[in-house]
Amino acid sequence: MENKILTKREQEIFELLVLNKTTKEIAKELGISEKTVRNHISNTMQKLGVKGRCNAIIELLKLQAISIN
Fold it and tell me: Which of 3, 9, 30, 69 is most open to solvent, judged by the fewest CB atoms within 10 Å of its CB?
Protein backbone atom coordinates (compact mmCIF):
# COMPACT_ATOMS: atom_id res chain seq x y z
CA MET A 1 0.00 0.00 0.00
CA GLU A 2 1.48 3.34 -1.07
CA ASN A 3 1.36 6.16 1.43
CA LYS A 4 2.95 9.57 1.97
CA ILE A 5 2.96 9.43 5.78
CA LEU A 6 5.46 6.65 6.44
CA THR A 7 8.83 5.79 5.01
CA LYS A 8 9.10 2.28 3.60
CA ARG A 9 10.97 1.16 6.74
CA GLU A 10 8.43 2.74 9.11
CA GLN A 11 5.65 1.00 7.23
CA GLU A 12 7.45 -2.37 7.47
CA ILE A 13 7.89 -1.89 11.22
CA PHE A 14 4.28 -0.95 11.89
CA GLU A 15 2.99 -3.79 9.75
CA LEU A 16 5.03 -6.14 11.95
CA LEU A 17 3.80 -4.41 15.14
CA VAL A 18 0.22 -5.03 14.00
CA LEU A 19 1.16 -8.73 13.84
CA ASN A 20 2.10 -8.48 17.55
CA LYS A 21 5.84 -8.75 16.93
CA THR A 22 8.20 -7.47 19.62
CA THR A 23 10.89 -4.86 19.03
CA LYS A 24 13.47 -7.65 19.23
CA GLU A 25 11.62 -9.82 16.67
CA ILE A 26 11.20 -6.87 14.29
CA ALA A 27 14.89 -5.97 14.57
CA LYS A 28 15.91 -9.55 13.81
CA GLU A 29 13.49 -9.90 10.88
CA LEU A 30 14.57 -6.62 9.27
CA GLY A 31 18.27 -7.00 10.09
CA ILE A 32 18.49 -3.75 12.07
CA SER A 33 19.13 -2.93 15.73
CA GLU A 34 16.40 -2.75 18.36
CA LYS A 35 17.36 0.90 18.92
CA THR A 36 16.75 1.64 15.24
CA VAL A 37 13.33 -0.01 15.47
CA ARG A 38 12.47 2.12 18.52
CA ASN A 39 13.72 5.26 16.73
CA HIS A 40 11.46 4.57 13.73
CA ILE A 41 8.49 4.00 16.05
CA SER A 42 9.27 7.19 17.98
CA ASN A 43 9.65 9.24 14.77
CA THR A 44 6.32 7.95 13.50
CA MET A 45 4.57 8.78 16.78
CA GLN A 46 6.01 12.32 16.54
CA LYS A 47 4.82 12.71 12.93
CA LEU A 48 1.32 11.64 13.95
CA GLY A 49 1.29 13.68 17.16
CA VAL A 50 0.34 10.68 19.31
CA LYS A 51 1.70 9.04 22.43
CA GLY A 52 2.24 5.30 22.46
CA ARG A 53 2.48 2.58 19.84
CA CYS A 54 -1.18 1.63 20.14
CA ASN A 55 -2.33 5.15 19.37
CA ALA A 56 0.06 5.29 16.42
CA ILE A 57 -1.33 2.03 15.06
CA ILE A 58 -4.92 3.26 15.47
CA GLU A 59 -4.09 6.51 13.67
CA LEU A 60 -2.26 4.71 10.84
CA LEU A 61 -5.20 2.36 10.37
CA LYS A 62 -7.58 5.34 10.20
CA LEU A 63 -5.32 6.99 7.60
CA GLN A 64 -5.10 3.67 5.73
CA ALA A 65 -1.30 3.89 5.89
CA ILE A 66 -1.19 0.29 7.17
CA SER A 67 -3.66 -2.54 7.10
CA ILE A 68 -4.47 -5.57 9.20
CA ASN A 69 -4.02 -8.72 7.17
Answer: 69
Helices (H), the chain: 8-18, 23-30, 34-48, 53-62
Cβ–Cβ < 8 Å for 15, 3: no
Question: Where is 33: in which H helix or E strand?
Answer: none
Could you give the CA distance from residue 53 to residue 18 in angstroms, rounded to a whole number? 10
Handedness of CA 58, 49, 41, 53 (dihedral sign): negative
Domains defined along the chain, listed by start? 8-62 (1.10.10.10)
Write down the pTM of the prediction: 0.89
* Burial category of 69 from C-beta neighbours within 10 Å (exposed 0-12, middle 13-18, buried 19 and up): exposed
